[in-house]
Fold this protein.
Amino acid sequence: MLRRLQEALFVDERIEPPARTRRCQFPPTAALERVISEVATMAKILVLGASGRVGSQVIQALDRNHDGVEVVMATSRPEVAARWRKEGRSAVVLDLNSPETFAHALRGAERLFLLTGYTSDMLHQSKMLVDAAVVAGVAHIVHLGVFTSRKDPMPHFNWHDLVESYIEASGIAWTHLHPNVITESVLVRDPPVTETGVFTVLCGDKPQGWVCTADIAAVAATVLREGPEKHAGANYWMSIEVLTGPEVAAILTAASGRQITCNVSDPSELEAALPQMNPGSVRAYMESAVMTMRLTQHGQMSAQTALRDDVLKVVGRPGTTMKQWAQQYFASLHR
Ligand SMILES: NC(=O)c1ccc[n+]([C@@H]2O[C@H](COP(=O)([O-])OP(=O)(O)OC[C@H]3O[C@@H](n4cnc5c(N)ncnc54)[C@H](OP(=O)(O)O)[C@@H]3O)[C@@H](O)[C@H]2O)c1
């Protein structure tokens, strides 16, 4: 939006570029008046986690189509917000651990993409933020959760369930997103699998449900853009393909033309590293991740091996298969 206002202010269509970009228009041109009236009717969306794996792709998806909405990127790091602003983006500092940053960041926000990190702090953080959102007059919260059955024994699944119940009780319209295992969180490494020839799964040779970040982002961006009139009270599930690690390795091998193998492992190495993990809230999340992998390894996560493609329902195209993801990912490595 900032960019559009700058363009409208500085562009005199009677002057040829490059000189026209330097001329400021007063009194306002029709273009400026048009932008001002557009701004008045636009829904402001605040996107948390905008620098992270999922949130950055939500921003990209909204960049491709931001009809009727203004997008504001949130980060806990002031230097990142400053860099984004320099790049012409709307950006605010919102530190989930500092509730005093909430009111300013939420000012004027009509829709909120609520993403928390890999930490049990999500409980306190989300509760405080939802309370602030009520005060700020937020109309719609879109929450990134997990592929819950709402009857799972893993703590981090239950934390997400509790956060969602709290959002529902707040009176704010809500939409909950439920991705299964995020493909990039397992398969995207530096150096990439095409160099190492191997990736690791910690749940033995048992199947897991997969969804790529672009699909989650496409659903999130569509819901945020279309708003509560269309999506209030909806749960969207994303588990596009159910595959074992070795099955994924065969798909990656075919797509890359290089031999890629799966190191079929268990969570004991991650478990051994737990005592060194700090802070305790991150350790608590990772303990829960270890528990999830053990249950998967022992075939006790049947609710998570279901197929659900709400990408099709929300975005109007099917979710991305592992083969399609691999082809796109390997092509991107050569760009
Ligand atoms: N991995 C999986 O398979 C999987 C599956 C289902 C659901 N999930 C869920 O996905 C979520 C994580 O998403 P992700 O993978 O995109 O995470 P990520 O890549 O680790 O990004 C975390 C984001 O949180 C922001 N952040 C960190 N500390 C913050 C703070 N104090 N205040 C405000 N923002 C903060 C970071 O931005 P700044 O540093 O710029 O602030 C960053 O953009 C978790 O809730 C997890 O349960 C993961």
About this structure: The chain has one domain: 42-333.
